[in-house]
Every structure is written in C-alpha cells, then in structure tokens.
Fold this sequence. Notes:
Distance between the termini of chain A: 41 Å
Number of helices of chain A: 0
Oligomer: heterodimer
Radius of gyration of chain B: 13 Å
Largest sheet of chain A: 6 strands, mixed
Radius of gyration of chain A: 14 Å
Number of strands of chain B: 11
Order of helices and strands of chain A: EEEEEEEEEEEE
Helix content of chain B: under 10%
Largest sheet of chain B: 7 strands, mixed
Shape of chain A: globular
Helix content of chain A: under 10%
Distance between the termini of chain B: 30 Å
Structural class of chain B: mainly beta
Largest interface: A-B, 29 and 30 residues
Shape of chain B: globular
Amino acid sequence: AQTVTQSQPEMSVQEAETVTLSCTYDTSENNYYLFWYKQPPSRQMILVIRQEAYKQQNATENRFSVNFQKAAKSFSLKISDSQLGDTAMYFCASGEAGGTSYGKLTFGQGTILTVHP
Amino acid sequence: DSGVTQTPKHLITATGQRVTLRCSPRSGDLSVYWYQQSLDQGLQFLIQYYNGEERAKGNILERFSAQQFPDLHSELNLSSLELGDSALYFCASRGKSQGASPYGYTFGSGTRLTVV
Lengths: 117, 116
C-alpha cells in the first residue's frame, strides 16, 4: 500500500516570490508516478505536474518544478514567481503503474497555499 | 468543462436516507473512479470500474455501492446516511490508452453532499 504525507497544513508567500511545498511518500513498488494537484476554491482538481519514478530528471511545467529524491522518497513542489491565482489547496499524490491497483491514486492531506499581494 | 459530468452538484439530505450520485465519463473513457473528500482532507479512493466491471476497491463502506452501466456512466449509491458521510464526492475517468498507469485522469467538478 502507498502512503503520502504532507507535513505543512498551511503555507503563505508574497506575490512574485518562491515557495516550496513538501511531500514524502512510501511505496514498495519500483514503478510508480507522483503528482501535484491544485484545488482552488472552486474545488476543481487540476493537475499541476507529474513525475515518473523511473526518470531521474525533475519535471518542470513553466513556473512549477519538482525536486524528486527517490532514495529519500521525497517529492517537493517549487512554485516560482508566485501569483495570486496560485492560492489553492495543493495535494501530493502517488499512483502505481500496473499491478492490481489499476491506476488508483493515493493522496496526501493537502497544503493550503495563500499568496499575498 | 473537463468532459466529466457529475450530477447533482449539491445535495442536502437527512440522516438515514439514501442518495444516488451520477457520473458521466469523458467520451471514450472506459475507467471510472470514485473518490471521497471529507472536510479539508485529501481524497480517499472508493472504487473503480472499467467497462462495466469492478476493478479495484478502496475503503468503501458497506453502506456504499456503485455500478457502471453499458453506456459507461456510473452511479454511486450511499444509503443509511450518517453525518460523517458529508463530503465532496469526485468522479474521474481515464482512457484505455493509459492502461493500468495512474495518469491521464480527468476529474469531474464533484458532488457536495451534506447530511443533516
């Protein structure tokens, strides 16, 4: 079974600055994926970025990048040049590739990020 | 519009009642997943269907059941409702091309259930 832990219930950052959200996970699988999802006040689940465990290179998507430390089972999200629209709940999630999990995701408890003007 | 449609958007009902939540997946997607998000918590996996068959089950209560119909829409039935069942229920779908990999999710906008 997979577990995902987000140790920061709340974070805040000033507009245009950089913030890092932490996530640790545990899995016995060798082949898995990691994700960061954003949930704004509208409650819609929006994929921010994903990382395949077999790839050593950290994923980046515009202002969003991850620091994937496989041995430490750590997967942090860095948001650069924070914008007011980044204010949301952020969830770290993991999913096994193949096996009997059939693509289900395991989510962390979430981090509420507030961007201040 | 994500392409995954969930109805109703909001539902208020009394304890002990039964409700049905409906999900229409994105066109062509065969897999449907149900997740429960209690207040300020992460999403918990409930159950998955693939082309009408149950494929995976999470910590779904016995009072809850689901099914996927031939037209691929899915329904989540919640019975003998308790106050603690109040939550946001998400449906998500994935296409066949994703196989067993956990990516390619498209989430619906959720059904907010309030049990009073």
